[in-house]
Amino acid sequence: MIDRIHSSASSELAAAVEQARALEERFFDLSIDMLCVLGFNGYFRRLNAAWERTLGFTVAELKSRPFLEFVHPDDRERTLGQNGKVRGGGQALAFENRYLCRDGGYRWLRWNATPDHSQQLIYSVARDITTQKEAEVERERLVNELRSALAEIKVLQDILPICSYCKKVRDDEDYWHTVEGYISHHTNTRFSHGVCPECMRTHVEPELERLERE
């Protein structure tokens, strides 16, 4: 009797363990995010299907080479530094780098990772943020274009239209004013009129001589 109860309990426990393992496997395989287990030796130990969907390489191909070979050359130094911190007991939180795709392009990934020193493993989850990065680049481009346009507008505002003949100045409402009137209206400047030496010689003195002759 006791043996049958023990056997039944063992069977139920084994079934529960198997069910839990199956749920874990299913969660791992169906996850939208890129889940992986990385050995301290730099090789992937386990990867879910999201890796194949995102990068185009098979799981076997990704596990056959050191992970660093898939990292963009410009990101490798930072990635090695972060990997060293995790192996040293730290965690990777929102770490970003670029990974090679089968077609030769790169995808931006954002990582969270934590170590398991007893097993010499790093458990990680990565998310593809390439679309977000491209949107940030596009937003920066638009901001720079806007800044350039505003700078050009400021330059145009600093250009004062003036008539080549009468020397009147045009305001923003398309009215024409004398230079004195325009400056007096837009600044605190007030004019005191005089005669420059050139005008004295070419205009005033000849006019005085004419009056004296009369």
Output the strand order for the largest sheet. 2-1-5-4-3
Radius of gyration: 39 Å
From the spread of the alpha carbons, the general shape counts as rod-shaped
Structural class: alpha+beta
For CATH, the homologous superfamily of the largest domain is named as PAS domain
CATH architecture of the largest domain: 2-Layer Sandwich
Reported by name, the CATH topology of the largest domain is Beta-Lactamase
What is the number of helical segments per DSSP (H or I, 4+ residues)?
A: 7
Give a quick precis of the structure.
Strand 6 and strand 7 form a beta hairpin. This protein has seven helices and seven strands, in the order H-E-E-H-H-H-E-E-E-H-E-E-H-H.
Could you explain how this protein is built, in words?
The protein is an alpha+beta fold and 214 residues long. It folds into two domains: 31-134, Beta-Lactamase; 158-213, no CATH class. The chain is 50% helix and 20% strand. The chain is built from seven helices and seven strands. The strands form two sheets. Strands 2-1-5-4-3 form a five-stranded antiparallel β-sheet, with helices on both faces. The chain has a two-stranded antiparallel ribbon with strand order 6-7. A hairpin with a 4-residue loop joins strand 4 and strand 5. The mean pLDDT is 84.
Keywords:
214 residues; Beta-Lactamase; 20% strand; single chain; two-stranded antiparallel sheet; 7 strands; alpha+beta
What secondary-structure arrangement, pairings included, does this model have?
Layout: H1 2-30, E1 34-39, E2 44-47, H2 49-55, H3 59-63, H4 76-87, E3 92-100, E4 106-116, E5 121-128, H5 130-158, E6 169-170, E7 176-177, H6 179-186, H7 197-213
Antiparallel strand pairs: 1-2, 1-5, 3-4, 4-5, 6-7
